[in-house]
Amino acid sequence: MLQIILVHRRLAQARTLTLGTRHFVIAFVLAFLCLAIGSILMMTLLLQTSLASSVPGLRELVLNSARLETDQSDRHMRESVNAMAIKLAEMQGQLARLEALGDRVSGLAGLNPKDFNLSDPPPRGGAEPVGGHDITLEEFRTQLDSLSLGLERRSDFLNIAESNLMTAKLKDKMMPTILPVNVIYNASGFGWRIDPFNGRMAMHAGVDFVANPGTPIVAAAGGVVIAAEWHHDFGNMIEIDHGNDITTLYAHASKVYVKVGDIVRRNQHIADVGATGRATGPHLHFEVHVRGVPQNPVKFLDAGGAPNQAQMARTELSQSTGD
Questions:
Q1: Is the entire prediction scored with pTM above 0.70?
Q2: Is the backbone of residue 153 left (phi > 0), alpha (psi -120 to 50) or beta?
């Protein structure tokens, strides 16, 4: 604590001023503020004066600061451009894979890739936009990321489409839709008929193909041989499992060239026509079963485009009349 005694002729008596700690703190703060403000004003004045008078040292300091800020901005720009260049390279790789995948899918779907000009950008148009602004770096990066994601999704979709088309194509190859012998089925069809041995009505569960002995018998579809044996009614017979609960049976063969467990291809030579078993002459008895139930083989052969008796008759008639 500090006491100050004031004495003056105008004062009737002396006065005493007491200064405590609070007064000293206030005075110190005021002095510090005055000093700071004075320093700022001096620096500002000195900077302006130095720039105006082209003082080399301070001018170089200001220019270096500006140059450093510019270099940082340029470095950030280069890093952004490099990142987008890497993204663009990835997209080019994705596009190349997408084009190859598209060609495979087109082939599976029976389309000609040459009918689709994918190398040129598609035509686009519209009214002139009102307003708008130049694209920013951030907007460009957003568009690039969105395009990359779109390519990935389309690639996934085409992969699924390719898998489904491949599955459908394999199933088609496993369907008994080709003629097991290169003749027309004109002997006996599917359904009820008079049995040639006892004269009674009986169910004929297949189709008979009349052919010369030794005529090649081929698999109507790909599959696995589940029977290759002698049967008291069918003679030398073969049964093939084509998957999806579909089997085919080939009876009365003179020779058999496959065994149980063999994997056969569509149109593979598996036996020769004969007259073994319960048969009145050389022919192939052909059956199709779905889940163990006999089906009319004609439905499957017609689905595969195999010529039937009526078609062959019309062709022969047309050829004989010169049409």
A1: no
A2: alpha
